[in-house]
Amino acid sequence: MFAKSIGFLIVGAVMHSACAQRDAAPSESPVRVVFFGDSITEAGALPGGYVAQVDSGLAEVFAGRSIEVIGAGISGHKVPDLQERLHRDVLSHSPTHVVIYIGINDVWHHFEFDHVTGTHPDTFRVGLTDLVQVIQGRGATVLLCTPSVIGEDPTSAAPVNRRLMEYAAISRSVARETGATLCDLQQAFEAYLVEHNADKAYEGILTTDGVHLNEAGNRFVAAFMLEHLRAALAK
After folding, report:
1. Of all helices (H) and strands (E), which one includes residue 103?
2. What is the count of structural domains for the chain?
3. Is 103 within 8 Å of 67 (Cβ atoms)?
4. Is residue 7 part of a domain?
5. Dist. CA 219–CA 208, nearest whole Å
6. Structural domain harbouring 70
7. Would you give per-residue pLDDT tens digits along the chain (235 residues)?
8. Which residue, 13, 46, 14, is CA-closest to 215?
9. Nearest Cα to 5, choosing from 51, 33, 40, 52?
10. How far is CA 104 from CA 26, 81, 94, 146, 214, in A?
């Protein structure tokens, strides 16, 4: 997720099973889900990542329905970066559903990095609102995630953790005001880590480094996303 990392955009559908490629039933329209975010999503579209797991999971749950899953994550990106590439990397695919998982770098880059800066809270709010409304204006359903964790001790009083809570609250507010479906990853991570991280370790439970997902973290996020997408697609 470092700004110096070279991101790549995965624009093809990932790991489609035969079930997902069958023709949709006459009463069901084809579905195209775009996961829009930073390096967590970029890595998530690789084999074993959470996006790839969601793809195979949707194919199983909705066997026979035409479902395409696209990963659109780029390392180091923040809300303003997503605004700049929204049309190219998301709207050009005519999605039916867009999952926005952003916010870590908007917070993290305020603290530990040279030559980069985080996103001001007002800029974060306005930009996130703009992203949601533009996507909704194209007729797609938006699932808006709160930023997950920077360090796996949710009780930490570190400034970066306090700032993360502030930005998670902004994401909740934007979801409420725009009518987007809230996917409260921050709350889900906190509940899990309170139970499974009694030693208050910074990393190693769901992440490799306090931010990026390990194998367990990818399974955790995939299950979380599948739950919310199943509900959205059942409507």
Report:
1. none
2. 1
3. no
4. no
5. 14
6. 18-233
7. 433 333 434 333 443 333 333 333 434 789 999 999 999 999 999 999 999 999 999 999 999 899 999 999 999 999 999 999 999 999 999 999 999 999 999 999 988 677 788 999 999 999 999 999 999 999 999 999 999 999 999 999 999 999 999 999 999 999 999 999 999 999 999 999 999 999 999 999 999 999 999 999 999 999 999 999 999 998 8
8. 46
9. 40
10. 41, 13, 26, 9, 16
C-alpha distance from residue 131 to each of 50, 60, 104, 141 (Å): 22, 30, 17, 12
Can you give the CATH number for the domain in which 148 is found?
A: 3.40.50.1110
Distance separating alpha carbons of residues 235 and 231, to the nearest angstrom? 7
> Which has the closest alpha carbon to 6: 34, 51, 47, 39?
39
Please report, in angstroms and rounded to a whole number, the separation of the first and last CA atoms in the chain.
34
Within a domain: 86: yes
Q: Is residue 183 part of a domain?
A: yes
Q: pTM above 0.70?
A: yes
- 144 domain residue, yes or no: yes
